């Protein structure tokens, strides 16, 4: 059995690893805006700078999860902890649809 801190550390580690391994899927939503999907969580493009792009969780206002990616695709910063369950969605013909 794992203790609660060990489980939290394990979940945190898995989420960081997925982003660091660039296991990020990019898909357009129905409006054509780009979304990033990591471990079943969705992120929207928050800010685009000369050399970095910031992605925030789509449950903005209540969730602090985010990541920053350099223009060459390298992950610069990750805050992986979500304060909610994964959203329900489908990707049909390469387009994101919220359920």
UniProtKB/TrEMBL annotation:
FLYWCH-type domain segment(s): 26-84
Looking up Gene3D superfamilies in the UniProt record yields: 2.20.25.240
Q: Which GO terms describe its molecular function?
A: zinc ion binding
InterPro entries found in the cross-reference section: Znf_FLYWCH
Keyword flag Metal-binding: yes
**The entry's keywords:** Metal-binding, Zinc, Zinc-finger
Q: Any idea what this protein is called? A: Modifier of mdg4
Species per Swiss-Prot/TrEMBL record = Operophtera brumata
